[in-house]
Amino acid sequence: xxxxxxxxxxxxxxxxxxxxxxxxxxxxxxxxxxxxxxxxxxxxxxxxxxxxxxxxxxxxxxxxxxxxxxxxxxxxxxxxxxxxxxxxxxxxxxxxxxxxxxxxxxxxxxxxxxxxxxxxxxxxxxxxxxxxxxxxxxxxxxxxxxxxxxxxxxxxxxxxxxxxxxxxxxxxxxxxxxxxxxxxxxxxxxxxxxxxxxxxxxxxxxxxxxxxxxxxxxxxxxxxxxxxxxxxxxxxxxxxxxxxxxxxxxxxxxxxxxxxxxxxxxxxxxxxxxxxxxxxxxxxxxxxxxxxxxxxxxxxxxxxxxxxxxxxxxxxxxxxxxxxxxxxxxxxxxxxxxxxxxxxxxxxxxxxxxxxxxxxxxxxxxxxxxxxxxxxxxxxxxxxxxxxxxxxxxxxxxxxxxxxxxxxxxxxxxxxxxxxxxxxxxxxxxxxxxxxxxxxxxxxxxxxxxxxxxxxxxxxxxxxxxxxxxxxxxxxxxxxxxxxxxxxxx
Length: 490
Description:
- It contains eleven helices and 20 strands.
- By secondary structure, the protein is an alpha+beta fold.
- It folds into three domains: 3-338, Nucleotidyltransferase, domain 5; 343-409; 418-484, Eukaryotic phosphomannomutase, cap domain (Hypothetical Protein, Haloacid Dehalogenase-like Hydrolase, Chain: A, domain 2, 2-Layer Sandwich).
- A five-stranded mixed sheet has the order 3-2-1-4-8, with helices on both faces.
- A hairpin with a 7-residue loop joins strand 9 (181-182) and strand 10.
- Helix 8 packs parallel to helix 9 and helix 10 crosses helix 11 (459-468).
- The longest helix has 45 residues, at 341-385.
- The chain is rod-shaped.
- The two termini are 72 Å apart.
- The model is unreliable at 150-208 and 274-302 (pLDDT under 50).
């Protein structure tokens, strides 16, 4: 099984009508965790796979934490917008809201919110390509956990955190509210958007400080975002319980990372395309020159660890928070992994044809076996009755012929004798009077009957009465030709 992991750019800077034609970084991973290949391609030219994992930018995903009511399915889907509408500037009904299937260790559930229209365009682009089962995960949930993190934001013990991280590698449990996009005006503090990218309030570094965190720096080429700058830089922060995304200016990146480190112990990572041959290999090795759209070293920063694209792919495949939920769950199954109705119908028809042919052949073999057994029984009876027969060709015909011979030898009447046929005619003749017959002629087992011209003969009735007495009749040149209806030996 081949899995394809694709990294999407932020939708706030990439025009929705052009992102599908922009170059996307991808990794193909085999079932054993071996990286098959990786590179950059537009959505239509991505290699085929059995499963596609799309990693959505942290700036497009709002992560929240809430206590869910005891409902599931469509009822839960109707309740979710009312639970998060206070956190959004955009109408909650225009958002697609997903729930982490595993509860948070400190209680409650984590919720992901994305713009429904944009998310539907992502699903449609990858579903139409027929790339197998589709899974969409937020980039925030693919960043490694902070080193030495003891307890998550809710204050639960380390054993609870370990239990969660064993189920999903690279999972960070964060308390702060989701995606953030920085603006460099005035104080230069980041501004938190809603799920659709509209500003909902100001988030300072003090609000996300104090707890151990991990930060991942991702660069996208300018062509991918349609920007006048050389690259688009996104900083993904995971801290405590949730996470947020920051889009920063290239020139302010060192200062932004410095402030993160000053506010809280932060592990800094840089996304690199130079991944090891096997997913999950050592991540502190050096890397070669990185092709677009991955990163080059951040200027004037020390201690920036390299996170290979393969390691990010590993975390994406293990992520339990799949955004393909509710009405998008069927799309997530993919056109390749799910059989269409006509495939099921064709398969059922083919199975029915095979079953019918098998049944016909089995019945034919049974009839052949019964025929052979019956022939063997008739041959045995024939040879027992007439031991002098050495060659048996047709046991039934030979038996009839021998019985006829015995009957003739004993003086018994045959069915085609004159006396037998004349007696049968006398029984079948009434109500036609016998005086209406002008002539009888017997020759070679056939009896010819000629009626007087003034005789009234019911032809159909007479023919039926003759047949019931064992005679067949046909009219020829005004005569009735009668013969025994009993089959003669061949």
